[in-house]
Design goal:
This protein is mostly helical. The chain is built from 29 helices and ten strands. α4 packs across α12, α8 runs antiparallel to α28 and α25 runs antiparallel to α26.
């Protein structure tokens, strides 16, 4: 019991002291709130402590080692977004300049809130539902919203793993099936597929062979059976990884968390040896300073911080809840955040090195094609040979020579230049072509790999890396769903986990229709972002403003053995809530100003076209956002008006010796008081909160009646800590 507690301060006093039940229970160790230990034989001291430890060990699984836990957190936080979203945002938002807002927001929002989630999970040892009910019962809906958001993300995230599985198996052939356009033979006539010829081989393979995509979200097109089978395989892998909880997922993390770094290191070495790799890396790190002042850049950086660290999903809390309470979670927060940022930068280096190589290949192709046009114009006397610089050799035409020739022709033929159809073929234009998300992985990167020596090997490695990155994140996402539900409702772990996977597979069929990619865009870009922002800001408010930052810092000091930096106090109390409030407002304004839409692939044009969501899709999108956030106001209203119990009127006693359990639930106020004090209702203080008497060290408490036949049970018992006791 803490030295500054009321009981300890009056330990040597004989005066009669009356304290509230909440005050006394708040000093107990946080054991399972459903259980108390009855010492039938009157055993005390070390035996009771051993019983407490044994009961706690039986009730809560634990990580086998600190390394396993760290790898689990890294596997959850480092995901597919580090490989394709972060590089895309760098490319789109000013290259190296984007790192400035990202680092600032990582320090003032990301790390403090990541530390907060680690701390509350480790201290309370419950999933997200139990944690936020514990911190502030009226905001207990935060935990339910986290579960719903995890479900939404898991539904489409596993579809992406399914895509990676499809490409993984297609990589075991040479040449790679997306390296050339298919040829349609009609008797003796061979014709290149028109859709492929208008676009590119990799683009055609992605949209037509893999997705067989429809022209819009309104055209379902039926199920894509290849992707349906891949989705089934993906959910089977995830189910086997999480069915036993951390006992099974912890072992998977050793491979799924470490293998991607091996592949990234191999790709970095190989990428740096490619011609043009330096061009890509220099392009990435060349900052466009004007972007640093763009509010949209800061909003996207904040969103990336949330997704990168897994804030608000509940997976961080779930993993941390299996830790020992003296674990240094402050060190864990700093370590995992640093590794996450390092991985994003490493992946960006790899991506831009490879894209630099691809840009050089495409630029050379552009030069060759346009040089052939110029030669044709020279032969037909459309252009005079006097326009060609004397040192230009068409047999060995360099990009520099072509640029010089292009400028001369443009200057001389200014009035008719557009009709010539010549392209500038600038390397910077190729590097500036930003490809987002799945397009970066399944189009741009796969096209670059077709030019690698031993391309099937690199393709197999790349997609196996994506599968493992996705699996690590899915394990954390599933933990964000299963852990709080199992903790709260005591459902069988294996049965519930398998049921979740089966349910998610059937709902996930929505995403393997021919229009499924458009629903992935809806869920990824819109349905989770706003609810996550609301969840994270309410988590911060619940701890910093309702529970109390000073109290939370004091309990962190007791748990960790040292006082965290004062920096966290100000971040939790002021800076982080303010920044997140601005972010939430900006997100809402963005949705209102720019109607949500998606990039549709039009088969006839063999090109993408941006379309707005139709009315029914907008209704679905709004419904998803409302469903994800609805538990928060519902639980608040129900508990504010006492329509839903906050758990304070529940007392449970377990009998350790006989392995029996007696629950006394939902007691009336007077009944609970009489049970605790062994008094009649008229003798108990009223109204709530209830009190019990502490008579000093020389007296016998009604709750410690060992050997006293007049005691409630005729034997002594020790009341364990409850979830309402302390954080």
């Amino acid at each position: 019991m803490p030295k500054n507690s009321k009981v300890t301060q009056r330990e040597h006093s004989s005066e009669h002291v009356t304290e509230s039940v909440a005050d006394l229970l708040a000093l107990e160790e946080p054991v399972d709130y459903k259980q108390s230990i009855l010492n039938v034989a009157g055993e005390t001291g070390s035996k009771q402590k051993a019983a407490d430890e044994e009961l706690g060990a039986e009730d809560r699984p634990a990580w086998n080692s600190k390394l396993q836990y760290i790898l689990a957190q890294i596997g959850f936080s480092v995901g597919l977004g580090n490989i394709w979203r972060f590089p895309y945002l760098c490319q789109k938002n000013g290259g190296g300049a984007y790192l400035v807002p990202y680092l600032v927001l990582l320090i003032i929002i990301g790390i403090p809130l990541f530390f907060l989630e680690l701390a509350v999970g480790q201290r309370i040892r419950r999933g997200s539902i139990g944690v936020w009910h514990y911190v502030c019962p009226r905001l207990g809906g935060i935990g339910f919203s986290s579960c719903i958001v995890c479900l939404f993300v898991g539904l489409y995230y596993n579809v992406i793993i399914g895509w990676s599985i499809f490409y993984f198996f297609k990589s075991f052939q040479y040449p790679l099936p997306w390296s050339e356009c298919p040829v349609i033979r009609n008797g003796t006539v061979a014709v290149v597929e028109a859709e492929c010829e208008k676009s590119s081989a990799t683009t055609y393979f992605w949209y037509r062979e893999a997705l067989d995509i429809s022209n819009s979200i309104s055209e379902s097109g039926g199920l894509n059976w290849k992707m349906t089978l891949c989705l089934l395989v993906a959910w089977s892998i995830v189910g086997m990884a999480v069915v036993k909880g951390i006992q099974s997922s912890g072992k998977v993390m050793y491979f799924s968390s470490l293998f991607p770094y091996v592949v990234l290191a191999c790709f970095l070495v190989r990428g740096l040896l490619l011609r043009g790799a330096v061009d890509g890396i220099l392009h990435m790190f060349t900052p466009k300073l004007d972007k640093m002042l763009d509010p949209q850049v800061w909003r996207e950086a904040a969103t990336q911080v949330f997704f990168a660290l897994g804030l608000g999903f509940g997976g961080v809390i779930a993993f941390s809840s299996y830790n020992k309470q003296d674990n240094n979670c402050h060190f864990d927060a700093a370590l995992v955040s640093f590794i996450n940022f390092f991985t994003s930068v490493l992946a960006t280096l790899v991506v831009f090195a490879v894209l630099g190589f691809k840009a050089n290949i495409m630029n050379e192709k552009c030069v060759v094609e346009n040089a052939e046009k110029i030669l044709g114009y020279l032969h037909t006397n459309v252009l005079s040979r006097d326009l060609i610089p004397p040192h230009v050799n068409f047999s060995h035409l360099t990009a520099k020579d072509y640029t010089e020739m292009y400028k001369v022709i443009r200057a001389v033929k200014e009035d008719r230049f557009a009709s010539l159809g010549l392209d500038p073929c600038l390397l910077e234009d190729e590097l500036d072509k930003s490809v987002q998300g799945t397009g970066l992985a399944f189009i741009a990167f796969t096209e670059a790999m077709t030019h690698f020596p031993a391309s099937p090997f690199w393709s197999v490695m790349f997609f196996l890396m994506l599968i493992n990155l996705g699996l690590g994140s899915m394990i954390g996402t599933m933990a964000g769903i299963t852990t709080p539900i199992i903790d709260t409702f005591k459902v069988p772990k294996e049965m519930f986990t398998v049921g979740c996977c089966v349910f998610a597979f059937f709902v996930g069929l929505l995403f393997v229709q021919r229009s499924g990619n458009y629903f992935v865009t809806m869920f990824d870009d819109y349905s989770a972002t706003l609810p996550l922002t609301v969840i994270v800001i309410l988590e911060n408010i619940a701890v910093a403003w309702i529970y109390g930052t000073k109290k939370f810092m004091q309990e962190l000091t007791e748990m960790l053995g040292f006082r965290p930096y004062r920096f966290y106090f100000y971040m939790w109390k002021f800076v982080s809530p303010l920044c997140m409030a601005v972010l939430t407002t900006a997100s809402i304004i963005q949705l209102g100003v720019t109607p949500p839409g998606y990039s549709a692939w039009i088969k006839e044009e063999a090109a993408e076209r941006y379309l707005y969501f139709p009315d029914w899709a907008m209704a679905l999108l709004i419904t998803l956002i409302v469903v994800a956030t609805l538990p928060i106001p519902v639980v608040f209203i129900l508990r504010h008006f006492h329509l839903l119990s906050d758990g304070s009127n529940t007392l449970s006693v377990s009998y350790k010796k006989g392995r029996m359990m007696k629950d006394i639930s939902n007691l009336e106020e007077n009944d609970e008081t009489r049970f605790i004090l062994s008094k009649v209702p008229s003798e108990a203080p009223s109204p709530m909160p209830t009190h019990r008497s502490y008579l000093g060290p020389g007296s016998t408490s009604p709750l410690e009646t060992g050997g006293n036949p007049n005691g409630r049970y005729g034997s002594s018992y020790l009341l364990a800590g409850t979830p309402e006791s302390e954080l």
